[in-house]
Amino acid sequence: MREPLIIQAGMGVAVSDWRLAHNVARLGQLGVVSGTALDSVLVRRLQLGDPGGHMRRAIAKFPLTQVGERVIEKYFRHDKTSTTPFARLPLPSATPSRESLEILVLANFVEIYLAKENHDGKVGINYLEKVQAPHLPSIYGAMLAGVDYVLMGAGIPREIPAVLDTLSRNEDTTYGLYVADAQPGDNFRLKFSPREIMGDKLPTLNRPKFLAIVASNTLAIMLAKKISPPVDGFVIEAPSAGGHNAPPRGKLQLNERGEPIYGVRDEVDLVAMKALGLPFYLAGSRGSPEDLKAALEAGASGIQVGTAFALAQDSGLSPSIRAQLLKKIATESLDIFTDPRGSPTGFPFKVARLEGTNSQADLVAARVRVCDLGYLREPYRKTDGTIGYLCPSEPVDHYVKKGGAIEDTVGRMCLCNGMMANIDQNQWQASQQLERPIVTLGDNVECVHRLIKKYGAEYTSQAVLEYLLNGLAETSPTKEKSVLDRLTP
Ligand SMILES: Cc1cc2nc3c(=O)[nH]c(=O)nc-3n(C[C@H](O)[C@H](O)[C@H](O)COP(=O)(O)O)c2cc1C
After folding, report:
1. What DSSP letter does each residue of 235-283 carry, written as one string?
2. What is the pLDDT tens value at each position of the chain, 489 positions in all?
3. How far is the C-alpha of 144 from the C-alpha of 153, rounded, in Å?
4. Is 213 in the pocket of ligand 1 (CB under 6 A)?
5. CA 436, CA 449: separation in Å to the nearest integer?
6. Residue 153 CA: which ligand 1 atom is closest?
7. Binding site membership of 287 for ligand 1 (Cβ less than 6 Å)
8. Which DSSP letter does residue 162 get?
9. Is the CB of 315 under 6 A from ligand 1?
């Protein structure tokens, strides 16, 4: 398999959706769909009437016909208005119902099926390690549709390479669940049995490659040398990247704006990375042909680009949010704030300051808290040894009643609902509030400036690829032929 030069990054909840990944992959680079919350995304797309019929077309290809029919019967409708709530799924749990498992497998299948439809380019799926409960059925569903790469950050994905091996053989698979306050002797593991879902229809599956998203040499060494099987490669993400960032090493220090300060200790040693002998990609403000050239010269296989693709016309981002962002970028008035507290995960999170979104503290304070998606809840051990769930963004009294510290709840935003609102799947809550977006982008939007200048504000993912790859050819004429070879599959 030829290694791609450019990875179109996994973003948000369905910002990098099947359409974006499809458009990138068919042009010979790695298109990545976001695997986060795909079950909710699928059932909401159906409730919005499935414009274009894409969900139903992919569901019809799912090997378990009855599962697909049940989901369509239950969720597909035409009468949704902005003040009728979306029907919700049960919250993710370590012991999901059969129906929850089926929807996860189906939703991941659908997204990859559509991203891979009618071309032979490579498609990946990106998950957050911290969102553990859906991992096994999600990865299996993506594998049923032939996913080529799995990428994972926001945690230590030490078990994933082995999981890919066993799932590709359709074997029963387990995954170590992090449970706060676990006692010695506890062994909390998620379990998934392909046979229980598929019955006798067990297909032959390819084992996708696994790229771990890391921000330190120590973690890279561990994942390359100390686990078996090792990872297949890395994305090295700098703290300027959009989305969540790794916290800075050492004691947290904030600048005058209240953002985490990163220093030399947070830089990854690329010579040491190269010595590991595995492919690696650089991410975070790497959105120009010069960046791509520099990455290749440093021994990287290429770059992973998020921000430039998030603002492409064919991304899943809400068109009105995209228009607001582009306007601000054009006038150089977009402020990106690295919020050390906002995300319930505890990781710093990049927030684009945009009117009418939850980047405004007064709007966050006015929101009636509700935890009705639950992807970021953290499992904890209850005194009776069973598992409970906590999220510092849930209603404060619930959090405190379950033993959480009240100070943990201060300044937290509900990323689950915010992320769904970013793709125009805002929930209408019982409090009569429509959920507001929480938009994230990388620190460096210079690439977007350049793209708008060259291709106009309606630039597409194809324009991003042309800009990066043709530009590379211009900066290094000797590479011209091989680069252009790669632009078309
Ligand atoms: C809108 C947006 C959403 C993102 N969401 C995620 C995510 O859910 N999971 C993840 O691992 N990375 C996420 N990222 C980070 C990207 O995968 C990528 O590494 C990063 O965007 C690269 O840096 P750049 O934004 O400067 O191009 C996101 C980035 C953006 C811009």
Report:
1. EEE-TTSSSB-PPPSSS--B-TTSPBPP-GGGS--HHHHHHTTS-EEEE
2. 568 999 999 999 999 999 999 999 999 999 999 999 999 999 999 999 999 999 999 999 999 999 999 999 999 998 899 899 999 999 999 999 999 999 999 999 999 999 999 999 999 999 999 999 999 999 999 999 999 999 999 889 999 999 999 999 999 999 999 999 999 999 999 999 999 999 988 999 999 999 999 999 999 999 999 999 999 999 999 999 999 999 999 999 999 999 999 999 999 999 999 999 999 999 999 999 999 999 999 999 999 999 999 999 999 999 999 999 999 999 999 999 999 999 999 999 999 999 999 999 999 999 999 999 999 999 999 999 999 999 999 999 999 999 999 999 999 999 999 999 999 999 999 999 999 999 999 999 999 999 999 999 999 999 999 999 987 777 665 544 454 455 544
3. 22
4. yes
5. 27
6. 11
7. yes
8. H
9. no
Indicate if ligand 1 lies below 6 Å from the C-beta of 441: yes
What is the CATH number that goes with domain 6-317+443-487? 3.20.20
Q: Determine which residue's CA is closest to atom 2 belonging to ligand 1.
A: 11
Which residue is closest in CA terms to ligand 1's atom 8? Answer: 12
Cβ atoms 417, 376 nearer than 8 A: no
Q: Find out whether the beta carbon of 242 lies less than 6 Å from any atom of ligand 1.
A: yes
Which residue is associated with the tokens 């387990």?
A: 174
Residue nearest to atom 11 of ligand 1 (CA): 153
Of 178, 110, 170, 112, whose CA–CA distance to 136 is shortest?
170
Q: Cα(444) to centroid of ligand 1, in Å?
A: 12
Residues 189, 176: contact at Cβ < 8 Å?
A: yes
Calculate how far, in angstroms, residue 244's C-alpha sits from the geometric centre of ligand 1.
Answer: 7
Beta bridge partners of residue 428, listed in sequence order: 434
Cβ(8) – ligand 1 distance below 6 Å: no
